[in-house]
Design goal:
The chain is mainly α and 142 residues long. The chain has one domain. 70% of the residues lie in helices and 0% in strands. It has eight helices and no strands. It has helices at residues 7-15, 21-25, 29-42, 44-63, 71-81, 86-90, 94-107, 109-129. The chain is globular and about 40 Å long. The two termini are 24 Å apart. 35% of the residues are buried.
Length: 142
Amino acid sequence: MESTHSKTIGYVLWIFGFTGSHRFYFGKPVSGLIWFLTLGLLGIGWLIDLFLIPGMERKAELRYKAGEVDYSVAWILQTFLGYLGIHRMYMGKWLTGLLYLCTAGLAGIGWAYDFCTLNSQITEINAERRGETAPSDRLIEG
């Protein structure tokens, strides 16, 4: 099985964990949003996640499909430059990447959308590039 997510990247994003970025990275958009809105459950959930990251990484490895588009690269670009659309350009979505560049990620709305859907977007692209069909999207998982 090819690796899709990295514990190291998870811990780097955990440093900014009060924003939920590490939870979004590991495919947990609902709890990522909760972390974002509550500053990591007022820091308590953020500290607990320090110990939960290895399990989150294992689950992400089983759930997502590896391929040409690297999840860690896309997530680093999304987290720090997402409003510029650099992550979309990296994935080969040039038109929407340029649109994000000119509109600050469609005024942040597209950027927020990508936090919730980036893993499934990458899985879909990787499956298409391999000539496979992408697995059904199970976006809403906490």
